[in-house]
Amino acid sequence: MSLRELVVLGTSSAVPTRHRNHNGYFLRWDGQGVLFDPGEGTQRQMLHAGLSAHDIHWICVTHFHGDHCLGVPGVVQRIARDRVTHPVRAVFPASGQLYWRRLRHAAVFADTDKITEHPVAGPVAELAPLTARRLSHPVESYGYRLQEPDGRRMLPDRLKAHGIKGPEITELQRKGSVRGVTLEQCSVPRPGQSAAFVMDTRLCDPVFELADGADLLVIESTFLSSEAALAKEYGHLTAYDAGLVAARAGVRRLVLTHFSERYGLAEEPAFLEEVRRSYEGEVVLARDFTTVPVPRRR
Fold first, then answer.
1. pTM above 0.85, yes or no
2. Active site annotated at which positions (predicted)?
3. Does 63 belong to an annotated binding site?
């Protein structure tokens, strides 16, 4: 299986700080690179993380607040300047297409035809392997999920009992039966791996749908619960909310990010303490350049 991991490029929210850049998240997935929400400074953050324009195959923008998209001009121009030859698909809310065009053509440069635009609209949009769902924010915002198709895990003891080995195993997987022995007799269902990406939103059903059973959930945690009223007013989550989503959805590894500039690194223990009130699983408090593997299959 190809490498699947998250490289965090930025973890602040509306205002970058001395320790946290604007948003930016790069997911390696089966030889593809998915760049989520390239905020201001993403091009430079990629250099520090050892990533290049040639690593990008998708650019996914959740919405058009500046901290989630002001890095688009630099990223687009770098893709053109470095002469990336493979297709790069840009996914963003259709209602923000005017902003996308302004960002893509923010300065004079030799454009590239390798970037194709895929605006999404409606409650749910499918762009395999991506699913986008509309969230609850003052401007139209989408969350994303990557889902590997379900498969089957072969059971060596069952294969041995039926005398199936070598090339016959491949034939069994391909055809579904060998010498009267079925695939179901020698294997069990294996859920495909999944990663969900949820930024600016209030709690709503699509958040839980995106997170459902996810191996990796990257989710905003803008505020602590002491600012719960402010979070709801501005369409954000608290650390407790993020943990609640992870617990109810059965998430295996939770990554908290998008912290308000009002909180410094010294407040990190408070975020962990709060999320533990609602979620007992594995938690990563993201910092810039944190690398988080997608958990191995169950």
1. yes
2. 67
3. yes
Strand order in the sheet with 58-60: 115-120, 88-93, 58-60, 32-36, 24-29, 4-10, 291-293
| Domain extent for 23 | 4-150+191-293
Asked if residue 298 belongs to a domain, the reply is no
Which tokens go with 225?
């619960």
User: For each of the chain's 298 residues, which pLDDT tens digit applies?
Assistant: 468 999 999 999 999 999 999 999 999 998 999 999 999 999 999 999 999 999 999 999 999 999 999 999 999 999 999 999 999 999 999 999 999 999 999 999 999 999 999 999 999 999 989 999 999 999 999 999 999 988 898 999 999 999 999 999 999 999 999 999 999 999 998 888 999 999 999 999 999 999 999 999 999 999 999 999 999 999 999 999 999 999 999 999 999 999 999 999 999 999 999 999 999 999 999 999 999 999 987 7
**Residue 157 is among the residues annotated as catalytic for this protein:** no
Q: Which helix (H) or strand (E) holds 103?
A: helix 97-104
Residue 258, annotated as binding a ligand: yes
Tokens matching residue 168: 């016959």
Cα 83 to the center of its chain, rounded Å: 26
Q: How far apart (Å, rounded) are the C-alpha atoms in residues 32 and 46?
A: 16
Which residue, among 83, 72, 67, has the nearest Cα to 107 in the 3D structure? 72
What is the domain count for the chain?
2
**143 and 180 co-located in one domain:** no
User: Catalytic pick from 30, 37, 55, 67?
Assistant: 67
> Is 152 exposed, middle or buried, given 0-12, 13-18 or 19+ CB atoms closer than 10 A?
middle
Instruction: Please state the φ and ψ torsions of residue 151, each to the nearest 5 degrees.
Output: -135, -155
48 is in an annotated binding site: no
Residues 6+ apart with CB under 8 A from 298: 190, 191
